Amino acid sequence: MAFAQIPRSTYYNLIKKMNRLDPDPDLKVAIKAIYDEHEGLYGYRRIRDELANREQIVNHKKIQRIMKELGLKCLVRMKKYKSYKGTVGKIASNILDRNFTAEVPDEKWVTDITEFKLFGEKLYLSPVCLAHFKLEQN
Questions:
Q1: 136: DSSP letter
Q2: What angle do CA 32, 35, 41 make, to 5 degrees?
Q3: Domain boundaries, given as residue ranges, for the chain
Q4: Locate the HTH-like domain: which residues (predicted)?
């Protein structure tokens, strides 16, 4: 104790903790089984609900602590795409009126901007297309 420079009470408390038996071995097995059963998609809330369905009421904080001890983390799923249906900003006038044939090259250019999320980042795609011109056939 003198060489570790810790109080005597701390030393004996550590010894007592190390000799203490695991109070929840069955609960750890049940949590691990539910986690594996659902392929890591269940977090502590769903595991708590699943344990309640199996008639085993456990506090959510205890489940969190056990999951942390076992190194179990819920896999976060990406949210599905939902296009915005609210009010639209400025709409450009329809000059081409769906007439995409051009008389000369570089007469008509069309573009659109698309915003999408990839790995949590916003990305913008803005392709530019040249309207094709009609070749006269004899």
A1: P
A2: 160
A3: 8-70
A4: 27-80
Strand pairing report for 128-130 and 114-118: unpaired
Tell me the pLDDT tens digit for each residue of 32-60: 999 999 999 999 999 999 999 999 999 99
Q: How far apart are CA 104 and CA 137, in angstroms?
A: 16
- 112 near 126, Cβ under 8 Å? yes
CA dihedral (25, 28, 30, 32) positive or negative = negative
Cβ(103)–Cβ(133) below 8 Å: yes
DSSP 38: T
What predicted TM-score, i.e. pTM, was given to this entire model?
A: 0.51
Which tokens sit at 19?
């000799």
pLDDT at 137: 54
Q: What is the pLDDT of residues 91-132, one digit of tens each?
A: 888 888 888 888 888 888 888 888 888 888 889 999 988 877
Q: Which helix (H) or strand (E) holds 23?
A: none
Give how far the C-alpha of residue 3 lies from the chain's centroid of Cα atoms, to the nearest Å: 48
Whole-number Cα distances in Å, 15 to 7, 8, 12, 36: 13, 11, 5, 34
